Each structure stands twice: as C-alpha cells, then as structure tokens.
Q: What sequence folds into this?
C-alpha cells in the first residue's frame, strides 16, 4: 500500500513513453535519443519500393533486419505509393515482421498519410507501436476520431504541426498548433500525454530562399517550448529533410545531420527518423565545415548559405580541404578547367579559360572542335548514363554558348570557317501552335552534342519548313506540337514532303504526340524515316542513329518494321471495340435526379474581368508538372528527396524560387483574366443553351458523348449531362473563363536568349505556364466560394485543390472530356476575350500568349472529369450539322478521337 504523496511522486517520475516489440522500449531522460530506421519506407528508399512492388517480401525483410542490426530502435514502415495496395502491403509486411524475432524485438512506427493504411497496420502490429501521423489538417472532428481509435488500439502517436490553414512554417505557428493539438488530445480525448510525440516540421535550410533561413532555428526553439510547456510530450522529426539542398554531397549532409541533432537534442528532441549511415560523429566534423554548417542552422550570418554552398564543393566524396581550397579546380590544366566549367554549368571563368586555350591552339576553331567538344562529350556521357539531368545539361549549354560567342570574332578574323558538326537539324513548332518549351529543350540537348540547330520558332507553316529544310540542306527535321490540331499539321507536312520527294528523316515530339500516332497516322504518309522522340534524353541517340553511316540504314529498317507492327496491332485493336450508335449512347446518358435538386443561383451573373497580383497566385502553384517539363519525374514535394533526381530537383526548385521572387517583385509578367456566369440549360441531349437574365439566347455550347459500350449500368457521359435539361423547368447555370500570365514571358525569354542563357529562357516560360494554371485554380476558388458561391463553406488545402477534391469541375476545350477545340471561339465570343484581355486564338485554336488557360465552370456536385474516348462517324456527322460545318471539317478537328 502506498502513501498518496509518495505515489504521486512515483507516478510523475515514471510517466515515460513506453513502446514495445517483443522487447520493451522505455524512453527516459537517460535514453538521450531514439533512432528510428528510415529504409523500410517506400517513399524514402527506391530499393524497398522495388522489393514491395515485386512482392519480394523476403528481401524486404532483410532491409528491416539491416535497420535493426544497424542500431535502429524503432523501424518506420511506410507503404504510401500510388501503384501499391497500401492496406495489403502494410498488413502483409507487418505480419511477416511479427514472425521474425530478430526484427520484431523493436517497436514499429506505422507511417502513412492515409488513415485506412494506418488502421490496417494497427490491427496487426506486434506490441505497442507509434502512428506517424495525425494532424488537424482535416479539422478537429477527424483529428479526434483518429486519436480515439489510436488510443483504443493502444498505440502512441506522432502529431504533425499542421492545421486547417496549412503546415506550420515558423516558430509561432509551430507552438500554436502543437498547443491546440495537445489540449484536444489530453483534455478531450484523454490521450496519455506521454504517448504524444510532436513533429514540429524539419524543413530544408540553405535553399537560397530568405524565408528558409530560420527553418532549423525555429525547430530548435519550438522543440524547447514543447518540452517546457506540454508536459510529458516528446518531439520527433525526419532529420534528413534539413539537408535536401545538398543531395549527392554525403560529407556535408552527414555533418548537417549530426550538427542538427546535436542542437535539437540539447533543446529536447527525443526521437527522429534518420539513417545512421548518414551521421558523422559531432566532434569529428571538420571544424571549418562545422562552423559553416552551424552558421546556417543557427542563422548566425547573413551570407551563411552562400558560404556553405561555396565550401560544399570542397567536401564532395572523400575529399576534404579548407576554405582556401574552394577554387582548387582552378589549378588544373586548361582542358580540366573547361570540362569542369561545362559539367558544373559554371560560366564565371569561361572566357579566361577559352582565351588561354586559344593562345595554345594553332587555330581558334580548334578550341571548339577539341577543347570544348571534349568537355561536352563528358556532359553527353554523364547525361546518357543518368548521372546528369536535363536542367544541368541546359546550364552546360549556357556555358558552351558563351564560350563559342567569345571565340566567333577570332574565327571570323582568321577565316577558318565553321566548325564541323554532327549534323544539321531544323526545329519548328508547327503551324497554329505557340508552345516551344519542349522543342527548345531538345534543341539545347542536341546542340550540346555538336549538332547544328536551325530553330524556326513557333507557328511555322509547312511551306516555310520545307523551304528552309531544302535551302539549308538539313540532315533532320524536328517537328513539335502541344495541341491536338498540331497532329494534323504533322500529317499534312509529311504528305507534302512525300509529294516533293524530299528524303530528310523527321523526328516528332510534343505533348500530344505519341509513338502510336506517329506509327498510325504520320509514318504511312512519308517514304522516309519518321521517328517519335518521347523525351529530350533520347533525341541524341535517335539523331545519331539517323545520320551515322554505319547505323542509319539498319536503324531506318528497324523503325519502319516496328511502326508497321504497331500500326497493324493498333488498327486491329480498334476494330475489336464495340460502340453504341449516337442514338443509343444518348439513351444511356447520365441520369441525375433533377426533381430533387435545385441549382444554386450565382451571386453574380454576367461577365467580369479579373486582375490579381502575382504574389497571390504563388501558393496555388502545382509544382509537379513543372518538374515534368524538365524531365524530372516524381510528385512534389517527394521529388525533392528522390534518391535519383532529388539533388537536381532541389537545385532546380531553388532556381525557380529565386526567379519566381523576381517575377513577382519586379512585375515581369501581368496576370489578366475574364469570366462569365450565365443562365443555361441542356437542350437536344448534348448541347447547352446559354442565355442572359432576360432569357435571350447568347451562345450554344456543343458537347460530345462517349460512344464505347460500357459495363452494365455505366452511362455514356457528355458534359451536357451536368446541366439541368430545359424541359425539366429548372433554371441552371454555366460559367466559362480565360486567364493568362503570358504577357511579358516572350520578352523576358528573348532577353535571356540574347544573353545566350537558354536555361533561364526555358525557366521563365515554365514558370509562366505554372502561374497561368495557378491563376485558373485561384479564380475557380473565387468562383466556387464567392462569385458563384455554390461552395461558400469550402475549406481545402492547396494539395486538396491539386487533387481536385472541390465540388464542380472546370474542363477545358482540347482536353479529355471535351477535345473539341472549336468550342474556344464560342467562349471568346461570349466573353469578348481578345478585346478585354488580349488573349488571341491561332488558326489551330492555340491560345496566345502560350501561358494561358481557358475552360468552363460546372457547379453540379455530381459533375466529374472523364475521358470522351473514341467516337464513331455517326456522331461526327451529327456534330457537323449541329456546328453548321461540313463533315470534312468536323472530321479534321475531331480526328484524334474518331475510331478507325
């Protein structure tokens, strides 16, 4: 029997976090720091992801065993990957762990952003584990619901510093969210305080962005505050996050992790997810490196980031030196220096080194043919082997161009003529299309490999392409297009070249192009070789195979045979599909319950222009497509930590952030928008009649209907199905819009091109595109919550917006649900787009400026995005009559969607 006072003292002393596998783990002040192994995580380990995808669970268990043997006191298990059945994978892996005593002796951290995966893990986990994580992101109600279940399952929990407004990114937000979460858990859920572990967000430092300077220091301060003010709660975090800016430089990362942990533990951090192999002993860190790292972590100097970035070059691999040796590469031979500058994209010394090489050469042209091409061959080899990535290659090209520009006057003066090249390539974006980012990237990559590029630009008519190709005696023609009408232009051009008996091979590329379309539609129209190039990394190989004497004949035969086989298989597959007649498809239309639904009357009816500061659009940017445009594939922000491309993605992201700050602060671009919301009703099954408030007809939107035969019960959908039918008697509404951030993009890109800076020229175009999409997202939010107001209580995060979790849709002409580009002029007419905001349509219905977005607004809660798929000739004929055009014209515009 215990004395009450004494019992109280004992309870307070023993109120520690207690976890277990087969063996207990009690976290006491003497524990110092609990290391959580991070390699059994599909988002952090490419190897582990591969093993789980292949269902090679035996080897996956070896990864877990290695973590335990390597000193991990808890293992973090994460199965969050789009192509995995996360519930199945989590359940199976934890069950297998339970049968392995040497692994199961340690507790498990069930790590997922999806509640169903967390709960699956809780049902089978051995002993007492930890859930990573829950937060207030989805609101208090969901937070309490999840916490109660975790408590019932008997697990501890990591709580992210994240609420309905977003992730905590400064000290005040961290402590505000953690305090609120703690109070809810302890006072309302009655969650044991010692089983609560906070993750106050470890963010990267030394990114070059001003707002990131306090990332580490704010974490330390928040950790100290939590430990002093939230009794018994612990603190955790993913330590590797702090060093993302230095992916690929293990020596600096190890030092950063150790120094970060040293200060975090001093401030009260109790556990963390960290790879023990990526830790240096704090006392053994090079003192100069440690000083620079801690200057960054503790924000002790204004120039801390720049100094560490400079010093970091000296610590790559096992090479250690001091600050004086930062530029040691400058002591190498002139060839070594030129190669280093090209590989690293450093232009600071290029003219000095080129001049030295010129003095040593017999002729100025030799500096290009010998020295610079030797360096670019290294770049090409590294790129081809996956050790360099596209943004780095574009930076190398910038250095190369500056070097060549310096040499040109000397070459002209000596009348040496031009350098020999690997071949002459004509590049053009076809008639009616204004998009050129992809084309420009391919041109840069080919240029880096000694191909001479003739770039005709955008919206190039076929006769100009043919005339220039013949006049310049080019070796290859490269055609690019982004919108679907571009496909027809490529087919037409192939026919014209064939008529003229031209024998120049053609490379096809661009977003709407494909290997199948090239094989089925373009290649049969041209006797010479036509090859689809799906990304810039393949362009050099294709171009070389087309031109090298020892490969070109066999390569052409191989491509022709491959495309013949693909075409035959494609056409046979198309014939095997079953389709409804358009009448039967309409009978199987989507049936909504209009009798029990009343459309929300908009707060505003009519047309209005919209202006917005660029700064307001930044938070709406979806960064994943930005990285894709640079051929770095992965979902943001996970791509920044990707094992393969993470280092380059982080570097590119830092450059993008710096330019974005300039775009916003210096007003490089102008955001203009216009929208309209009008009364509308479905008529004639597939059309939407738009009128003004008095009932006067304004325009009619034409929609297309799916015709492929579906599984039983599945409807054949058209966009018109989401609008109340006229004969139902209920007034419905539709909206449409056009936004642009493109004015100023071409001017800035041209400025950079004049400075021989392709990298920043491409970067500003890519950011212009991202801002235009962000403007569309921003305006749609305003429409839903305010202007139309059909979702006035909406509260979604930016990720929710990217994931399209809002009510209603904003489909765009030219995209899967409505591939009919001829709908754009109807929008332009209704909104008076060109006169109001200056955005024009080309003859192929591309928008100019290129960084523009247009589309419709549908408010019905049942509306959803879908793909039209293939349609049959009867619908094309019907559509032509509705549109008032010939069947031939309709066929031309709808050809990508017409079943063969």
A:
């Amino acid at each position: 029997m215990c004395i009450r006072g004494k019992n109280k003292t004992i309870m307070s002393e023993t109120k520690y976090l207690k976890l277990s596998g087969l063996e207990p783990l009690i976290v006491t002040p003497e524990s110092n720091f609990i290391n959580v192994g991070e390699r059994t995580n599909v988002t952090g380990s490419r190897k582990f992801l591969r093993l789980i995808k292949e269902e090679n669970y035996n080897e996956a268990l070896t990864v877990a065993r290695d973590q335990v043997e390597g000193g991990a006191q808890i293992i973090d298990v994460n199965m969050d990957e789009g192509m995995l059945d996360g519930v199945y994978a989590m359940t199976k892996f934890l069950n297998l762990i339970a049968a392995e005593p040497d692994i199961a002796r340690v507790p498990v951290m069930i790590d997922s952003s999806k509640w169903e995966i967390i709960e699956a893990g809780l049902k089978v986990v051995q002993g007492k584990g930890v859930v990573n994580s829950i937060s207030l992101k989805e609101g208090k109600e969901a937070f309490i619901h999840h916490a109660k279940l975790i408590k019932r399952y008997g697990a501890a929990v990591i709580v992210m510093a994240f609420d309905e407004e977003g992730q905590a990114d400064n000290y005040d937000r961290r402590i505000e969210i953690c305090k609120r979460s703690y109070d809810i858990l302890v006072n309302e859920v009655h969650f044991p305080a010692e089983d609560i572990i906070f993750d106050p967000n470890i963010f990267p430092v030394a990114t070059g962005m001003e707002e990131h300077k306090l990332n580490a220091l704010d974490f330390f301060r928040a950790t100290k505050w939590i430990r002093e003010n939230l009794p018994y709660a612990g603190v955790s975090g993913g330590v590797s996050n702090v060093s993302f800016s230095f992916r690929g430089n293990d020596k600096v990362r190890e030092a950063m992790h150790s120094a970060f942990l040293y200060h975090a533990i001093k401030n009260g951090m109790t556990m963390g997810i960290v790879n023990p192999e990526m830790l240096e002993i704090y006392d053994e860190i090079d003192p100069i490196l440690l000083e620079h790292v801690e200057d960054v972590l503790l924000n002790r100097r204004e120039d801390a980031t720049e100094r560490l970035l400079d010093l970091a070059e000296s610590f790559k691999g096992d090479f250690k030196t001091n600050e004086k040796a930062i530029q040691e590469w400058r002591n190498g031979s002139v060839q070594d220096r030129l190669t280093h500058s090209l590989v690293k994209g450093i232009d600071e010394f290029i003219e000095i080194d080129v001049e030295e090489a010129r003095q040593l050469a017999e002729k100025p042209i030799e500096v290009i043919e010998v020295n610079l091409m030797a360096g670019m061959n290294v770049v090409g080899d590294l790129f081809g082997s996956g050790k360099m990535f596209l943004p780095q290659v574009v930076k190398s090209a910038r250095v190369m161009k500056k070097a060549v520009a310096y040499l040109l006057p000397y070459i002209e003066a000596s009348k040496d003529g031009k350098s020999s090249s690997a071949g002459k390539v004509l590049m053009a974006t076809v008639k009616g299309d204004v998009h050129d980012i992809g084309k420009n990237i391919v041109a840069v990559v080919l240029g880096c490999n000694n191909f001479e590029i003739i770039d005709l630009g955008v919206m190039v008519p076929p006769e100009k392409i043919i005339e220039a190709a013949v006049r310049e005696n080019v070796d290859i023609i490269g055609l690019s297009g982004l919108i679907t009408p571009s496909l027809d232009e490529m087919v037409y051009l192939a026919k014209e070249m064939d008529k003229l008996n031209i024998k120049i091979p053609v490379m096809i590329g661009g977003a709407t192009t494909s290997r199948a379309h090239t094989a089925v539609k373009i290649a049969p129209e041209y006797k010479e070789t036509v090859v689809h190039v799906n990304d810039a990394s393949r362009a050099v190989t294709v171009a070389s195979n087309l031109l090298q004497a020892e490969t070109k004949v066999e390569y052409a035969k191989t491509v022709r045979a491959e495309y013949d086989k693909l075409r035959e298989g494609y056409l046979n597959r198309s014939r095997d599909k079953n389709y409804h007649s358009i009448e039967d498809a309409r009978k199987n239309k989507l049936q909504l319950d209009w009798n029990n639904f009343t459309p929300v009357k908009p707060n505003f009816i009519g047309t209005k222009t919209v202006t917005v500061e660029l700064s307001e659009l930044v938070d709406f940017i979806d960064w994943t497509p930005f990285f894709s445009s640079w051929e770095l594939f992965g979902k943001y922000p996970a791509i920044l930590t990707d094992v393969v491309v993470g280092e380059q993605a982080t570097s590119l992201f830092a450059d993008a952030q710096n330019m974005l700050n300039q775009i916003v602060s210096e007003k490089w671009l102008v955001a203009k928008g216009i929208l309209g919301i009008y009364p509308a009703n479905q008529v004639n099954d597939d059309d939407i009649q738009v009128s003004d408030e008095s009932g006067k007809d304004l325009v009619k939107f034409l929609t297309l209907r799916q015709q492929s035969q579906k599984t039983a019960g599945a409807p054949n959908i058209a966009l018109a199905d989401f609008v109340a039918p006229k004969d139902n008697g209920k007034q419905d509404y539709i909206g449409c819009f056009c936004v642009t951030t493109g004015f100023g993009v071409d001017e800035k890109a041209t400025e950079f091109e004049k400075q021989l800076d392709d990298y920043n020229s491409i970067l500003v175009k890519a950011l212009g595109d991202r801002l235009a999409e962000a403007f569309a997202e921003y305006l749609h939010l305003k429409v839903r919550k305010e202007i139309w107001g059909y979702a006035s209580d909406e509260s979604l995060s930016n990720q929710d917006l990217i994931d399209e979790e809002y009510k209603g849709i904003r489909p765009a002409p030219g995209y899967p649900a409505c591939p009919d580009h001829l709908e754009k002029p109807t929008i332009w007419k209704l909104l008076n787009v060109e006169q109001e905001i200056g955005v024009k349509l080309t003859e192929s219905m591309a928008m100019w400026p290129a960084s523009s977005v247009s589309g419709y607004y549908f408010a019905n809660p049942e509306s959803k995005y879908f793909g039209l798929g293939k349609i049959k000739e009867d619908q094309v004929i019907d559509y032509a009559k509705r549109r008032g055009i010939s069947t031939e014209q309709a066929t031309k515009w709808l050809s990508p969607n017409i079943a063969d």
Remarks:
- The longest strand covers residues 670-683.
